[in-house]
Amino acid sequence: MDDENERYAHDDEEYAQLSLLRLLRVIGRRVGVLPGPIRRKKKKSLLDLPEEMFLHICSFLDASTLVHGLSLVCKQFYLILKDADFLWKARINHVLPNASHSLLCSERPGKLFWKLSCVAIEKQAALWKHNSMKKLKLSKRYYDATSVLLMPV
Fold first, then answer.
1. Is residue 150 situated within a structural domain?
2. Residue 67: predicted pLDDT
3. Could you give the CA distance from residue 122 to residue 126 in angstroms, rounded to a whole number?
4. 16 lies in some domain
5. I need a labelling partner for 53 at 20 to 30 A (CA). Which of 21, 47, 90, 129 fits?
6. In total, how many domains does the chain have?
7. Is residue 69 in some structural domain?
8. Which residues, other chains included, contact 123 with Cβ-Cβ below 8 Å and sequence gap of 6+?
9. Burial code of 69-100, b = ≥16 C-beta within 10 A, e = fewer?
10. What is the sign, positive or negative, of the torsion defined by CA atoms of 113, 114, 116, 120?
11. Domain-located, residue 32
12. What is the CATH number of the domain that holds 125?
């Protein structure tokens, strides 16, 4: 019987401690010392990144992937990449340091088309960089234009 009384006394003590903790939490919230109920944190995604950090990540991708892939993922990515003329200009200047204007013109006059110019320039630079062109060695002979066009490939 003493064991039962001790067990009930122990249970009462635990209940009192839990009740006291609950009371302290309620008072703490009202006073502003303790935060409210614990909420699950929202999972972070690429959409939560600051625009500058997102653009820094984009700098590691090729222009074609950005224009034809990433900008189609969601509206936010599209809007960021659409308005980032400075990004396209910087990428073009990396490949062609003295470029002061876009190579392609847009349908609207006065608006330079930096984005697609960047894609075209990076594709051409990749062709030259990876030596994917066929090499043709000519001897010291004279070839006229017709002969060059008729040469076997």
1. no
2. 84
3. 6
4. no
5. 129
6. 1
7. yes
8. 64
9. ebbeeeeebeebbeebeebbbebbeeeeeebe
10. positive
11. no
12. 1.20.1280
pLDDT tens for each residue of 53-95: 888 888 888 888 888 888 888 888 888 888 777 787 787 777 7
Please state, in angstroms and rounded to a whole number, the distance separating the CA atoms of residues 129 and 124: 9
Residue 105: phi and psi, rounded to 5, are -105, 145
Handedness of CA 86, 87, 90, 91 (dihedral sign): negative
- Taking the C-alpha atoms of residue 9 and residue 17, their distance in angstroms, rounded to an integer, is 12
106: which residues sit within 8 A by CB, 6+ positions away?
A: 112, 113
Helices (H), the chain: 2-31, 51-58, 63-68, 75-82, 85-95, 114-129, 145-149
Crossing angle of helices 75-82 and 51-58, in 10° steps, is 80
Tokens of 153: 């490939």
Per-residue pLDDT, 65: 86
